[in-house]
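User: I would dearly like some help making sense of a protein record. This is the protein in question:
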Amino acid sequence: MSKDIFQEYAILDAKIKELEKEKEGLRSTISEIVLEAPDRKVPTDFGNFTVSLRKKWTYPAIIAELEESVKVAKAKAESTGKATYVETPTLSFTSIKI
């Protein structure tokens, strides 16, 4: 087993995290600029940047209670064996603190 592939993965993971952080900072700045455009769209040589409105719903308390009931029912089905599952391999990586 070669250590190189694991080292390469760890290095890429660290770079991706740093790039995501940088991208999020740019996203905020770009969003402010695009929101000032009349149609909330700024065409560039790199593509179009658009800010769209997304609905965020707030539900009455009865819905939260129903959701909790569903969670309880799911847990009961899992514990009694009425619910089924499939196991799939998933890779996880926890980097060391440098």
Notes: The mean pLDDT is 93. The CA atoms of residues 78 and 86 lie 13 Å apart.
